[in-house]
TrEMBL record:
InterPro entries: AAA+_ATPase, ABC_transporter-like_ATP-bd, ABC_transporter-like_CS, BCAA_Transport_ATP-bd_LivF, P-loop_NTPase. PANTHER family: ABC TRANSPORTER ATP-BINDING PROTEIN, HIGH-AFFINITY BRANCHED-CHAIN AMINO ACID TRANSPORT ATP-BINDING PROTEIN LIVF. GO terms for molecular function: ATP binding. This is ABC transporter ATP-binding protein. Residues 2-216 form the ABC transporter domain. PROSITE patterns: ABC_TRANSPORTER_1, ABC_TRANSPORTER_2. Pfam families: ABC_tran. It comes from Sphaerisporangium rhizosphaerae. Belongs to the ABC transporter superfamily. Keywords: Amino-acid transport, ATP-binding, Nucleotide-binding, Transport.
């Protein structure tokens, strides 16, 4: 459902993505790992049409939603209003299906998004993405700045949506342990290039990947 071929994205003279190839099939949950500045957010922003390729192509089949890095909620609006804005393009105004999937949000619906904890705000960003009834979800840094328990909770919801509702997921993460725990396959991006890819079980055995991303020696 995501097909990226020989993608080149530049910021002025700087090349952020250099001939990247990546694909995610229907119903798959695939991880994209890499250090700061590797180009992960650039890829997410290109998939969602915020950035335009300098060369190569990106193809997304089905409705795509993107949970951006840093969540980017409207802090002065309530949780419910943030959700409703997420449904605007798809024409969905009723957040109750999202409350069924993420029941913790129902209790927060009248709170201002800006006063919530990081984990709660990430839950709102997740819910806002679900308001557009996506078939493909790109999650940029699910765990960034979150307590481990909040990360585990969100990851469990993601796995449930993938397994039970067939949601296709590209999970962008710096936390390889988390990504390997929930995804079958992964790509490793460094300095704008894919330097490793394959089943997570195999990548975890790769000494270079283990050293860089799993804290192995
Ligand atoms: P992080 O996890 O830190 O966000 P990332 O893997 O998502 O890292 P990107 O944000 O995609 O990396 O950045 C890739 C490269 O492009 C970096 O060298 C970054 O400095 C550069 N870059 C990102 N955004 C811009 C911009 N708006 N203008 C110029 N250069 C940029």
């Amino acid at each position: 459902m995501i097909e990226v071929r020989d993608l080149v994205v530049t910021y002025g003279a700087a090349t952020a993505l250099d001939h990247v190839r990546l694909s995610v099939g229907r119903g798959e949950m695939v991880a994209l790992l890499g250090p700061n500045g590797a180009g992960k957010s650039t890829l997410a922003d290109t998939l969602s049409g915020i950035l335009t390729p300098a060369a190569g192509t990106v193809e997304v089949t089905g409705r795509l939603a993107h949970i951006p890095e840093g969540r980017q909620l409207f802090p002065d609006l309530t949780v419910e209003d943030n959700l409703v804005l997420g449904g605007w393009r798809a024409g969905t105004r009723d957040p109750s299906p999202v409350f069924e999937i993420l029941p913790a949000l129902a209790g927060l619906r009248r709170r201002r998004a800006g006063v919530l904890s990081g984990g709660e705000q990430q839950m709102v960003a997740f819910g806002r993405a679900l308001m557009s009834r996506p078939e493909v979800l790109v999650v940029d840094e699910l765990s960034l700045g979150l307590a481990p328990i909040a990360t585990r909770d969100l990851a469990a919801h993601l796995v449930e949506l993938n397994r039970e509702r067939g949601l296709t997921v590209l999970l962008i993460e710096q936390n390889a342990r988390l990504a390997f725990g929930v995804c079958e396959r992964a790509y490793v991006l460094e300095a704008g290039r894919v330097v490793a890819e394959g089943p997570c079980a195999e990548l975890a055995e790769d000494p270079r990947v283990a050293r860089a991303y799993l804290g192995g020696s």
